[in-house]
Amino acid sequence: MCVESEPTRVTLEVWHPGCWTIETTEATDVGILGRVVSRTTGARSKAFVTLYADRRRDLDDAVETIRTFPQVHTATEVPNSTPEAVVQGSKPGNATRDLLIEHEAGSQISGAFLSRDFVTAQPVNTHDGREQWNLLTMRTRRDVRDTLDTIATAHDAEITVSSLARTTNTAGEAPFSITSLSARQREVFELARARGYYEWPKQISGTELADELDIATATLHEHLHKAEAKLLGTP
């Protein structure tokens, strides 16, 4: 793989078949912010998403719709979990609702991007049947386009590049050095950020995070300490 000295920002519009987020936004008047996606055991993944709409009843319709998809195993509401900064920065509708969803891994295209050295710079915003992706990578422009063509072919997807440019301005986004984390460290760290663990005051405790991940609290802190050391460049 050819790499650049500075990260490349890639913004995309994506459609792919069998995606419950895309189909939900086609069937209901909601948008969906995908904030954390992680692989779990076997062929299942977990997604932490925020639904947004102009009316609360639209959110009810969307939750009911999500639970009808065969590729969705569970859709659990998570009350009061959206950090204020995320809500304001994403400019959702008048009403929001957070869900923790366990689903078939193949129903989402996120793994295809993350496994090919792309990092999500902002939440994936799905509305009106299309996903809006904002990614960072060290790949060259030509390599990016070749890789996106490979992903589109493999997933029978439609991928439109909205913009593609090198950038050093990643303020307020996921740290680019997050690519140095292991898959498990990234999963734990991104969930901690999304749930407000690093807010002041904290919006979730380490014990609550550990329970959600089904790991010991000591293990959670070990993952977070290692992730923080890598991101801060400390030994």
- What is the highest CATH level, the class of the largest domain? Alpha Beta
- Principal-axis shape equals globular
Q: Classify the oligomer.
A: single chain
- Biggest sheet architecture: 9 strands, antiparallel
Rg (CA only): 17 Å
Runs in which pLDDT lies below 50 for 5 or more consecutive residues are: 83-91, 174-179
* CATH architecture term of the largest domain: 2-Layer Sandwich
CATH topology of the largest domain: Gyrase A, domain 2
Could you spell the SSE succession in H and E letters?
EHEEHEHEHEEEHEHHH
Estimated structural class:
alpha+beta
Give the N-terminus to C-terminus distance in angstroms: 28 Å
Number of domains: 3
Share of residues in strands: 25-35%
What is the number of strand segments?
A: 9
- Residue share in helices? 25-40%
Provide a count of the helices. Answer: 8
Output mean pLDDT: 80
Properties at a glance:
single chain; 235 residues; alpha+beta; Gyrase A, domain 2; 9-stranded antiparallel sheet; 36% helix; transcription; Bacterio-opsin activator; HTH_bacterioopsin; transcription regulation
Structure, described:
With 235 residues, the chain is α+β, with helices and mostly antiparallel strands. It folds into three domains: 1-15 and 112-167, Alpha-Beta Plaits (2-Layer Sandwich), CATH 3.30.70; 17-108, Gyrase A, domain 2, CATH 3.30.1360; 176-232, Arc Repressor Mutant, subunit A (Orthogonal Bundle). 36% of the residues lie in helices and 31% in strands. The protein is built from eight helices and nine strands. The longest helix is centred in the C-terminal third of the chain and has 16 residues, at 217-232. It is globular. The model is unreliable at 83-91 and 174-179 (pLDDT under 50). It comes from Natronococcus pandeyae. This is Bacterio-opsin activator. Pfam families: HTH_10. Keywords: Transcription, Transcription regulation. InterPro entries: HTH_bacterioopsin, WH-like_DNA-bd_sf.
